[in-house]
Specification:
Layout: H1 11-16, E1 17-22, E2 26-31, E3 38-43, H2 56-77, E4 81-85, E5 96-101, H3 123-132, H4 134-142
Antiparallel strand pairs: 1-2, 2-3, 3-5, 4-5
Helix pairs in contact: 2-4
Length: 144
């Protein structure tokens, strides 16, 4: 291989999510789980596992992207709380989860992991959620 390695999305993220958009820094992906409005923000940087491993400009851009999509998600889905997490225990590649939470959701008030099995979107549900995500994707793309 010559020179720099190319970014490759971790296979588990590719398997569990649906691509929505890309920026200079990140991929925005929808978790294929209709139990929660749930997006992932994945910085496209080779070998990065932790936030502090990003350059300061990339850290700042990631925060701006995260803030933009978080606000847009809360507006689009009218949630009670937005959970943002970077765990990486199962997938070491740095990625930020953005999950809109409701007091009526199956995991409230605890974390979403392991409470109910993931339920993939049907084609019709996916079309509907993608419509609701138009302003979120727009907010993501507008980050400079």
């Amino acid at each position: 291989m010559s020179g720099a390695e190319a970014f490759v999305l971790h296979e588990k993220l590719a398997e569990d999510t649906i691509p929505l958009a890309k920026s200079e820094l990140s991929e925005l992906r929808l978790m294929n789980d209709r139990n929660y409005p749930w997006l992932l923000l994945v910085p496209q940087r080779v070998g990065v596992r932790e936030l502090y491993e990003l350059s300061p400009p990339d850290q700042q851009r990631l925060l701006r992207e995260s803030s933009a999509i978080g606000e847009a998600m809360m507006n689009a889905f009218e949630g009670h709380k937005l959970n943002i997490a970077a765990l990486g225990n199962m997938v070491p590649q740095l990625h930020l989860h953005h999950v809109v939470r409701y007091e009526s959701d199956p995991a409230w008030p605890g974390p979403v992991w392991g409470v109910v099995p993931p339920a993939a979107y049907t084609e019709a549900e996916l079309r509907e959620v993608q419509k609701k995500l138009v302003p979120v994707v727009s907010a993501f793309r507008s980050v400079s």
